[in-house]
Amino acid sequence: MGNIMFAFMLTLFAGLSTGVGSLIAFFAKKTNKKFLSISLGFSAGVMIYVSMIEIFVKAQDALSSELGEKLGTVWTVVAFFGGMFLIALIDKVIPSGENPHEPRNVIADCEGCGDCEICVKEQKAKREKEQLMRTGVFTALAIAIHNFPEGMATFVSAFQDPSIAIPIVAAIAIHNIPEGIAVSVPIYQATGSKRRAFIYSFLSGFAEPVGALIGWLVLIPIMSDMVYGIIFAGVAGIMVFISIDELLPAAREYGEHHLSVYGMIAGMMVMAASLLLFM
């Protein structure tokens, strides 16, 4: 029982470290679009790097050990693009937030005609906020899905050998910090609410201890390299799709093209450093 509680505590610590990253929202300037562009590019860099360098490789190793190198690689690629198609389908099904039946907020000097310069600016600002909110929520969802099997893996390693698990958990906690930034910045910029930004980021990390709990109760008895590999490859596909479809276009829209690229490279470098620390 002591080992179980210790494993849960380690997993909880690793997952909720996303909250540390979300504190960036408390220092973000709402009107600084250059900062927003760099931050969104940074978020994309974090997700692309961790997907292609860590998650995809782990999935390939797991599936290859189960099916052999060639067939395992084929299944990894299929699951990777399957994750992309899944999140693309979700993207199509979820409404964009544009509802013609909702009352529109119009400033005092305008009658709400919809055609004048004031209305156009108001509508553009509204669309920008909706896009950022959508980006933040999708990022939180992707990271939560990623953290779920990660929580199971952390719990199992901590339960089997706590001395080995501690450096693993430390590494996960460190690389969860930029993931927290990836969630909090667009949500704060969209809503102006530091509280909401923190909550979304916190909840995306909370998927890790939830994954540990579900893994202990349900999945550990049926968990195999096949199941683990397919889940991880699918998650990698989801995170790459969101980076390309949501984060990078938004980063370019809010700043210069090069700023989004610099932010993306910085995100990759931070994630790479976090993974190298505990190799």
Task: Sum this structure up briefly.
This protein has nine helices and no strands.
* Unreliable sequence segments: 96-109
Shape: globular
How many helices does DSSP assign?
9
- Largest beta-sheet characterization: none
Percent strand equals under 5%
Bin the helical content. Answer: over 70%
Mean pLDDT: 76
Walkthrough of the structure:
The chain is about 80% helix and about 0% strand. It contains 9 helices and no strands. The protein has helices spanning about 1-15, 20, 35-65, 70-95, 115-160, 160-190, 195-220, 225-255, 255-275. Helix 1 packs antiparallel against helix 7 and helix 5 (about 115-160) packs antiparallel against helix 6. The chain is globular. It starts with a helix and ends with a helix.
